[in-house]
Amino acid sequence: MSSFRKRDPLNLEPDELQELESISKSRTAPFAQVKRASILLRYSRNESINSIAKNEQTSRPTIGRCIDKALSEGVMTALFDLPRPGRPPLISDQDKAWVIDLACSRPSDLGYDVQRWTFSRLASYIRRNCIKQGHPSLQKISKSAVHKILREAEIDPNRTRYFFDPKDNDTVFRIARMLYLHRLNNQEICCFCGQFKP
């Protein structure tokens, strides 16, 4: 006795039909989507699965999965791969928020004698203090993982801007000159560029 399974027919709406025809003729869409659109079009025209498999040069189980997905979840959903469960993330959003909060704080406030974090120093601090702060999943965090978390949050602890550098004599002279001119003219000076405001 054969295990032949009768599937329901696939009735397409006019807009779905137009979209599938467009995708099946596309040269820029991903290959898997073009193939699935072609399979669904052929099935909607009542072609047999054997005929579709022969014309599309693919296996019957592949065609069956595509048709079953279209019948159960919709035609447009069947064109795309469904998300796979995968491995759950090891570092939670709360852990990432703590790392970002640390990167935005000054190392000098936490007992270091420096003003800026490096990725190595930040990763080392996190490994030493993560359990006390309630983030045990960060015990083995590397500096590359710290870099990735901060890059996703668009934070760079190494980038800072200085307006005044007391070691630069030219800067001291320019600031003194601006203040002198400001006092002479009683005009406001922009703090960032040193130009007079209109």
Q: How helical, in percent, are the residues?
A: 40-55%
Provide the succession of SSEs: HHHHHHHHH
**Overall pLDDT:** 81
Count of spatially separate domains: 3
Distance between the termini: 93 Å
Shape by Cα distribution: elongated
Give unreliable regions as ranges.
189-194
Assembly state: single chain
User: Proportion of β residues?
Assistant: under 5%
Structure characteristics:
198 residues; 51% helix; single chain; 3 domains; mainly alpha
Structure commentary:
It is a single chain. This protein folds into three domains: 14-78; 93-152, no CATH class; 161-198, no CATH class. Helix content is 51%, strand content 0%. The chain has nine helices and no strands. The protein has helices at residues 14-24, 31-44, 49-56, 60-73, 75-78, 93-103, 119-129, 143-152, 169-185. It is elongated, with a radius of gyration of 32 Å. The model is unreliable at 189-194 (pLDDT under 50).
Write a concise synopsis of the structure shown.
This protein has 198 residues and is mostly helical.
Blueprint of the fold:
Layout (H helix, E strand, L loop, with lengths): L13 H11 L6 H14 L4 H8 L3 H14 L1 H4 L14 H11 L15 H11 L13 H10 L16 H17 L13
Helix pairs in contact: 1-2, 2-4, 7-8
